[in-house]
Amino acid sequence: MKIIAGRVLSFKKNPFYNLLNDSYHLIDEGGVVINNNIIEDIGEINYLKKKYSTAEVFDYGKSLISAGFIDSHMHYPQTGIIASWGKRLIDWLNEYTFPEEIKFKDSLYARNIASKTLDYLIKNGTTTASSFCTTHPQSVEVFFDEANKREMLVLGGKNCMDRNAPTDLLDTPKKSFDESENLIKKWHNKNRIKYAITPRFAPTSSPDQLEALGHLWKKYPDCLMQTHLSEQKEEIEWVKKLFPQSQSYLDVYEKFSLIGNGAIYGHSIHLSQDDINKISDTNSSVIHCPTSNLFIGSGLFKMRELNESLVKIGLGTDTGGGTSFSMFKTMSEAYKVSQLNKNVIHPIQLHWLATQGSAIALNIDDKVGNLKIGNYADIVAINLTSTGEIKQRYIKSSSFFEQYFPTIIMGDDRAIEAVWINGKLIHSKQML
User: Is pTM, for the whole model, over 0.85?
Assistant: First the structure.
């Protein structure tokens, strides 16, 4: 038994749909009891110390104790090209992404990047991530293997592409089906691994490949299906030319049975109301990637419209198109994007997107994303006075959310006091 003590924040309801005060529970002097790898109890710290008198106590003082962050859309193979200058999406893929991904045919290279990426995530308080890999099966193998070493819950899958990319990255409809199926059989639901069937996006898959992957998802419906949707206007025009019979970009995926519960659409910026309604009606999910959308100039995510239509929304760094592994940076940019759309987001709503909202979008909210009895003990302790600039604002604050908001806007890995994964302390300032 272990007790993690601090200011404990958990969710009762979705703060986008309910009164803010009814959506969360904050225990100012609280604790979380861990039994092996599971949350056993939550409550006032003095009560828990008496009830579990033999438990080891890790006291983080006034630090915020939360479920670990969930990065629900990223590309670990792009870690090496993060912050590459000056391209629109298609140019950026051709100039930087595809040449880098070709290197992942080398398992040692892939393992090195996978290991670095997971350590970068953990250092920033992220305990779960959903990543695209490359078309090489070994890129998936090493990502899952490195996650297993850290006992992380991760999601991922082999990119499937059979056109409009360099020859060294292309597969075929049959190869994408067979290699994905082999990976599913080996890894899906083993330890804390979840497989996501992964057509990169419609332009790099032929109709035959999308049809094959639709059949694969029907065969393994408890897998996720992750792809990209409506990221840039040039991309949307390209999809219209490649799939002239389809009514919309989303319609391409629907035609090939790549829509429904467990479908995860990254970006999803330029959606019509009909698209939004269909995503909601089919219980599909979208992932907001604000740092990437701003960096590559893709557009402004329609947070208000998607929430009004009850769409499941997660938050992702989209590294390396995104510019940071930090979910603070990602929340900060999400706030600014919504400001540009004249839609003010409350700090608890931002925190929801980075934790429970992302867990719901990825269909793993029965395991992670919230401090809840029975959930995995994936927990982060956040120092709300990690820098001088943040501390001076904190001192002037009169409420908890005024105290937390400066860390959301200006915080980085220095604010991460400790990270617990699967009930084990895996990162701490005291370890450094």
Answer: yes
